[in-house]
């Protein structure tokens, strides 16, 4: 595989993650509050929160597989780009990793013990971590552009767009709307990734490892990619069916 092919693969993997995990981030950000039919904000009841998490839960682990695969490509094939990104945006990257860990902890721990206080505390953690994760991801894209203004703008945009995306996926799974809004919001969350890849393309490709190394890594990719694709297909097959009690079992 050439450096350009690896760059395309990296873009696809990151795009897959933002589409899948963006829905989880958006649903987590709005877990406690939603717009009522009268247009006013209202607090969600515990049963409604479980429905929301059950709607996007099947996307969580497959999405993280895409992210781990993308990190493998970035570190293995484009080490200079990875080093430059961490050097310029180290605090943002640390914030992203920390909020990612807290978001996942909130999802998995909120129902592990009985009691409203335990669940409510983790729900607050989940909301804050989801917003922070989306914002830090957008800011990291802005760092790749080499602009503080871009980092701020993309951070805010990521928070807004992931909320829309999460709402669209939840509404689709609850059969309150069709798949078109999900397709639209998927494009919206993916667009900054594609735009950043295009802008950073010359620097990214120029910093690739040697051709023999890329060839060796290509063998690994042939083994890993079918697994990633199978998880993607399974995830979207699950969310394409109506929500039922099995989806809320772990939340």
From TrEMBL:
Its main location: membrane. InterPro entries: Cyt-d_oxidase_su2 (IPR003317). Pfam families: Cyt_bd_oxida_II. Its EC number is 1.10.3.-. It is a multi-pass membrane protein. GO terms for molecular function: oxidoreductase activity. Keywords: Cell membrane, Membrane, Oxidoreductase, Transmembrane, Transmembrane helix. It comes from the Bacteria. It is found in: Cell membrane. The chain crosses the membrane at residues 6-32, 52-78, 90-109, 121-139, 145-166, 178-201, 213-239. Belongs to the cytochrome ubiquinol oxidase subunit 2 family. This is Cytochrome d ubiquinol oxidase subunit II. It comes from Promicromonospora kroppenstedtii.
């Amino acid at each position: 595989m050439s450096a350009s092919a690896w760059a395309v693969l990296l873009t696809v993997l990151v795009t897959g993650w933002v589409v899948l995990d963006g829905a989880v981030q958006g649903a987590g950000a709005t877990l406690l509050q939603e717009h009522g039919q009268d247009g006013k904000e209202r607090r969600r009841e515990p049963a409604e929160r479980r429905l929301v998490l059950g709607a996007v839960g099947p996307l969580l682990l497959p999405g993280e597989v895409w992210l781990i695969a993308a990190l493998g490509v970035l570190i293995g094939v484009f080490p200079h780009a990875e080093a430059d990104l961490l050097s310029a945006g180290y605090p943002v990257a640390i914030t992203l990793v920390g909020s990612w860990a807290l978001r996942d902890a909130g999802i998995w721990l909120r129902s592990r013990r009985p009691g409203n206080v335990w669940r409510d505390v983790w729900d607050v953690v989940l909301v804050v971590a989801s917003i922070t994760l989306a914002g830090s991801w957008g800011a990291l894209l802005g760092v790749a552009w080499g602009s503080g203004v871009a980092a701020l703008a993309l951070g805010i945009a990521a928070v807004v767009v992931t909320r829309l995306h999460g709402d669209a996926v939840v509404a689709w799974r609850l059969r309150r709307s069709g798949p078109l809004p999900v397709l639209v919001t998927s494009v919206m969350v993916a667009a900054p990734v594609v735009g950043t890849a295009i802008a950073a393309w010359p620097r990214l490709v120029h910093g690739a490892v040697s051709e023999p190394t890329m060839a060796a890594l290509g063998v690994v990719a042939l083994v890993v990619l079918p697994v990633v694709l199978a998880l993607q297909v399974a995830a979207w097959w699950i969310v394409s069916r109506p929500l039922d009690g099995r989806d809320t079992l772990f939340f």
